[in-house]
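Collaborator request, handled under Task 6.
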Amino acid sequence: MKNPKLEDILDYCRVRPGKKFRLKDHDPGWEGDRSIAEERRREFAEQLLADNVAELAEAQEQLYASDTWSLLLVFQAMDAAGKDSTIKHVLSGVNPQGCHVTSFKQPSVEELDHDYLWRCSKALPERGRIGIFNRSYYEEVLVVRVHPEYLKFQQLPTFSTSDKIKKTFWQDRYAQINHFEEHLTRNGTAIVKFFLNVSKEEQRTRFLARLNEPDKLWKFSLGDLKERARWDDYMEAYQDCLEATSTEQAPWYVIPADNKWVMRAMVSRIIVQTIRSLNLKWPTVPESDRAELEAARRQLESE
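Structure tokens returned to the collaborator:
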């Protein structure tokens, strides 16, 4: 595609169910047609983001008013990919009462005494609202796959520290997640999932920026370097996960994340498209109530 349309680009970012998926086919540094000046491309992306933020505010109001669907947005990425800033910019126009962000860290003792979906289930959005998961139950097939030693803390009856983890273990978890998401969508939760695809070199640049700027030091952890050393293992885990768990009802999108202006514009457009695809309707007033409402209007006008 020499000059693809925006919708074609977004469609290409979608991981197709049942199709072979290769993460290396998705360029983290993609930024549009480079024959067009970068300034013009940035202006287009920033205007697209502004338009989408405004449209999302209206769409969220209709989502709330219809009270039939909720929307779950899942963000997964390597460290420094820009999850927090993307959530902040894309959802800047949404009514805070209709939106909730949950960030999932290392599980607590209580959470480890439940199945791995439990803590995320508690944070699911109710009808009419948008829920954002900053990391999610997918950590269980990403971080835990790279660090299978974490399984010993989950007290699984089918697992012991001496066991060699079989490949079917991860396939079973993919199936469990797919069934979980199918259950949610059948009961009125629309799901869209974003993998913010940052390159290893861009992550290095952002880590250095954090270390070189005093007001960003708090963002850096020595543990970030330990996980960076397992980059290839994480890429393999992401590739397998995205291929196995992108479904028609809960698709994955691989978003180029080296340029934040590209990433935010694409994410915002996909969210708006997802809500619009629900064919939401504004609530209608029953005919039996209209006479009383008309009387109320006349009373107020006469005051």
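The cover message to the collaborator said: "The chain has a mean pLDDT of 92. The two ends are 64 Å apart (CA to CA). Please let us know whether this matches your experimental observations."
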